[in-house]
Amino acid sequence: MNKQHIFSAFSSTSGLYPKLGNDESQGGTSMKIKAAVVRETKKPYSIEELELEPPKEKEVLVKWAYTGYCCTDLHILSGELPFAPPLVGGHEAAGIVEDVGPGVTKVKKGDHVVGAWMAPCGECPQCRRGWGHLCTGTAGYFGEGTMFDGTSRIKDKDGKMVRHSFFVSAFSTYSVVPEISAIPIRKDFPLEYACLMGCCISTGWGAVTNTAQVLTGDSVAVFGLGGVGLMALRASRLRHANPIIAIDKEEDKEDLAREFGATHFLCNSKENPVQRILEVTGGGAQFVFEATGDPGAIMQAWWSLGIRGKLVVLGITPFDRTTDLPLFLLPIHEKSVVGSLYGSMCAADIDIPRLVDMAMLNDLKIDRLVTNKFSLKDINEVAEKMNKRQIRGRWVLKWD
Ligand SMILES: [Zn+2]
Ligand SMILES: [Zn+2]
């Protein structure tokens, strides 16, 4: 599988990696922003001052307050995902609306918003079936890193265009996002926690409640205890699943895992967890959530399934990696393997405010998820720590 093949799956209408040249500016005054730019994969972020054009029709200018560092950001930096630099990443963010373009009706200046990295068009077959998170109408722009008119609002000091990323581009003081990606939320919810609604909370929560639809008493195992995995544990606990087995390579994640709802903890860098999972669940888990995207962990997750068990893959596997799942037991035990994208949220503008309400009741333990705050100048150190698996919980970039 190559990058071209993956993008043709995104969209049959958009060109691949269109050449970003010098843009003819379309009116309005550009503003200066500061951002972490992926100039080249497998290299550190370049901290740069950039120019940001004002929002066009149905677009919103957001001043970011906090941006979470998600492992997908590291995958983009490492070149493991098919996105071409130069780009401004950062897709898990919350901030305040600074300005709106013509035709914007859903938000206004001063609103608090969460950036949503899926921007459903509302008109494609997927959107019309209620699968807005799988929208194919805007997927080409997602892949190419542009707004819906096929151009970018960001350019560098030489006037060369820089791509957006995941529509949010929040490793940046400000960005322009499609209106549908700016989800308004109540103002009494702290923005430092709200940022996580944009990715790890929605993804982990939705995988359990929407994709898998875990019920009381179901047995659950969760591989990988980053932000997504911890939220999958929390959702399983609030659904009264039992047992809830957490698996991670790092032993020091045990206390956090138990706090979020795990009844058991296994360290898969010390032992193969499959036998213990089969014992604890009496033959295999009904639902196994794989939140790392690591082919080895996916194999362990597969072998941990019970009869009619469902493996839910949330982690993003590098685009050129494969696994050797032995499918013999797929029909024999009626097992299934399903993917879950963005928590199978049909509409982020409905689901995210509901999750915010739950967080206000302290049901989600979101304050325990944010374990550190950092500044833009430290982003390369944070990427390095993420790469070395030295981050527990979620670290968020605090903007001034
Ligand atoms: Zn993410
Ligand atoms: Zn659509």
General form: globular
Secondary structure: number of strands: 18
The number of domains is 2
How many helix segments? 14
Under CATH, the homologous superfamily of the largest domain reads: Medium-chain alcohol dehydrogenases, catalytic domain
DSSP strand content: 15-25%
The end-to-end span amounts to: 42 Å
Mean pLDDT: 92
Note the quaternary state here: single chain
Given as residue ranges, the uncertain stretches (5+ residues, pLDDT < 50) are 11-17
Radius of gyration: 21 Å
Bound ions, cofactors and other small molecules, one mention each: zinc ion
Which terms would index this structure?
Rossmann fold, 27% helix, Quinone Oxidoreductase, Chain A, domain 1, alpha/beta, 400 residues, binds zinc ion, six-stranded parallel sheet, seven-stranded mixed sheet
